[in-house]
UniProtKB/TrEMBL annotation:
InterPro entries: ArsR-like_HTH, HTH_ArsR_DNA-bd_dom, Metal_resp_trans_reg, WH-like_DNA-bd_sf, WH_DNA-bd_sf. It comes from Chelativorans salis. The keyword Acetylation does not apply. Gene3D superfamilies: Winged helix-like DNA-binding domain superfamily/Winged helix DNA-binding domain. This is Metalloregulator ArsR/SmtB family transcription factor.
């Protein structure tokens, strides 16, 4: 993953509403969720939801698929994994890793 793409995705998720949308879609699994279902959970205007979904789609974090009159949104799991990998791949490359939470709780 390129630095610019990771920055764009993190910027998109930096908005509280988009982060809520994304978490809803991640929880929905491979089936995804209709835009109406997301709107029902968040209780935000359709135009606001559309704006935020568009941004998540532009960054590759979300995909949309039309089924007749219903628009289904899905988290793009490979993109999510690439972003997580980008953040974690070089963990402690220039130093030692801090103890994990489990190790410090013991």
């Amino acid at each position: 993953m390129k630095h610019e793409q990771a920055a764009a995705q993190l910027e998109a998720l930096g908005n509280p509403t988009r982060l809520k949308i994304y978490r809803i879609l991640v929880r929905a699994g491979a089936e995804g969720m209709s835009v109406g279902g997301v709107q029902e959970q968040l209780r935000i205007p359709a135009s606001t939801l559309s704006h935020h979904c568009k941004r998540l789609c532009e960054t590759g974090l979300v995909t949309q698929e039309r089924h007749a009159t219903t628009l289904i949104c899905r988290a793009n799991y490979p993109s999510m994994q690439a972003l997580i990998g980008y953040l974690a791949n070089e963990c402690c490359a220039d130093g030692s890793c801090p103890p994990t939470i489990r190790e410090t709780a013991s």
